[in-house]
Each structure stands twice: as structure tokens, then as C-alpha cells.
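W.,

You were right to be curious about this one. When I first looked at the sequence I had no strong expectations either way, so I just let the prediction run and decided to look at it fresh. Below is the sequence, 398 residues in total, followed by the output.
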Amino acid sequence: MSSVKNNITLNYGFEFISNLNFTQALWVSYLAFKGLTLVEIGLCESVFHIASLIFEVPTGIIADRFGRKLSRILGICCKILYLSLLLLVNNFVFAMFSFVFAALSYNLESGADSAFVYDSLLENGTHEHFPKIQGYREIIFQTASLVGIMTGGLLADVSYTLAISAAIGIFALGFIIALFFKEPRVIESTEKTTMKALVKTSLLTLKNQPRLAGLMVYSALFLSVSATFFFYLSPYLRGLGYSLTMISLWYMINSVGSIIASLMVNKLIKKFDLKLVLYASLIMTMTFVFLPILPWGTLAFFFMGAFESILYVMMVHHINRQIGSEVRATILSVNAMAYSVIMAIMFPVFGAIGDRFGLRLAFTLMAILMACFVLGFGLWQRRGSLTGPRFFDIMNKK
């Protein structure tokens, strides 16, 4: 078996283990249990994303300069440290401190993961299979999330400490798997690229591809709203009297939607290409409207998970095919920065509205705002342009 095939196979195992996070859907309710208000919880998430903005490009450079393997090993170590600190949380300040390491873990993995897979395939001349592999990765991610969410709910109903401790043990196994990765070879310049030159090249790449930059921001907005709804749904349902086990069942429905979408995403990309960005964002807007309305919320949560996965896979695939290996991890990190900027603002504002007026109103207001955005954006695009040619003219091309 070639090193490339070993990388892909090992990566499947690593990503399954590293996404078995038993606290994924419950950390908001856990911090509430620890006595934090929704505003404070929102600010913890802001710290996560502000730290992400600080770490994103530097960690992308670590992956580009020192290797995807090292970046991913450091990422899983930081994830273990974050959960260890989370166990000790007893006040707002300590909670914020723990989220710095959560951000560092996310940043070290973000960009490096897809670049690792793409460059492994590129080395073997099979990079055209990347959308298919990406779909499989999304299936593994969502399956692991499904198992993790359900197991986490059962463990947390016994004890939050038990759930977090079990997650730490699982991630230690992921660290061992990552040690067996083999760094993929990429075509590099004979001259050693400086960090300053790497950042400059990345920014120049985006400047020369304004529609790519525009798509990155557009998709980041919808993924941010989806993530906000995903995390605040737990305390919302908790407030309605749902047990942690029942809440986990809701999140399982979301994961099932993502898994089904991941099975179909390769065919959908071949048929619709970038039109998927538009279609996914429109349907996600509808799910935002119906999510807080019971019993329709369960169906909306299913479709939100499905089209969030489609939007994410499509954008990662498009970014990878538009840029070179030498800046791939860095550009993917820049893509994540757009998401972090939006989340750093949106999450605490949403929490503040939830604290003052109730989460039901916060959900409703956000859904109305997104519906107005889609309508206004569509009308704007009929009359003008966002980045030179009409933003969605690219939807008519491959």
C-alpha cells in the first residue's frame, strides 16, 4: 500500500477519533450549569473566534512551512489541553482562558486537514477524486459526531465530568494515530519562502480572484448562523424541559442529515458545481425560520445539517482547485478567518438577546434578518455587481 493510501486511510481513522467529542453539543449547557450567563457563554465563543483570528494565518503558515502532520499533531494536543482545562472551570475568566486552547486546536487543524488530504492525492496523481474523498470525510465526521453526541448525552446525564474525561481519553488515541502520518511531498520553490512572502502571496492570490474571496465571505455568513443556531439550540431545548439524552437525539437528527448529504455531495458537485452555494444558502435560510417552531424544528434541523455539509464541502473543493499547494493551507485558514470574524460578533449578541428577551425571540430575529439578507442580496445582484461581474455569474460556469 502506498504512502498516499496509508495517509488517506489513517486520516479516516484520525478524523473519526478526533470528532468523537462527547461535549460537542453540550458545552453551552455545561457552562450554563457552571453558572455562566448566556452573554458570558457568548463571550467565551467570541474569545474562541478572536483567538482564531490571531492564530489562523500563523497556524496555516506552520502547516505550509513545517508540515501538515506536525500541525495536526499539535492540534489534537491542544484539544486535549482545552478539555482538561474545561473540567476545572469555576468562573467566567477561567472559561475564557480554556477557549484560547480550543481556538488554537481548531486553527492548527483547520486548513491543514484538507491540505494534507489534497496534497496526498496530488502526489499520487488522483487529486480529481478529492470531492469524493471529501464527501467520505464528511460522512466520517458526521458519523463520529452522531456517536459522540448520543454517547455524550448519556454520559452527561450521569455526570458532565464523566463525559469530558471520556473525550480526553478518546483524543489521546487520536494523537497516537497522527504519529503514523507521512508528510506528503509538494512541489516547492528551490528558494526558502519567508513567512512574510507566504502571507503576501496568499493575499495576492485572493486579490486576483475577487469572486473567490466573495464566495468565501458569503458562505461564511451562512455557516456562522447555522453554527449559532446549532450551539444555542441545546439551552433552548433544556429550557423547554428536554433531558440531555433527548437533546442528543435532536443533534443525531442533524448528523443524519449531514451524513445523507455527504453521500450525495460528489454527484451534486458534478451536476451543479458552484450553483450549490446558492441553492444551499437559500434552503438553509428556510431552516433558520422553522428551527425554533416545534414540532417543525426537528425537520428543519435535519435539513440544516444536510445543506450546511453541502455548502462546506463545495467551498473547500472550490478553494482547493483554485489555488496552488504552496499556499493551500494558508488560504484555507484565511477562509476560516471570515467565519471567525462573523462568529465573534454574532454569538455574544445572540446570547445577549437570549438573556434579555428569551432564546425563542433571538432565533426568530436572526431568521428574519437572514431572510431579508437573501432577498436584498438577490435584488442587488439583479441590478448591480459585487466584485466586477455579477457575483453569481460564476454559478453558470465550471
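Here's what jumped out at me. The two ends are 34 Å apart (CA to CA). And, maybe more interesting for your project: The chain has one domain: 3-183+208-389.

Coffee later to discuss?

I.
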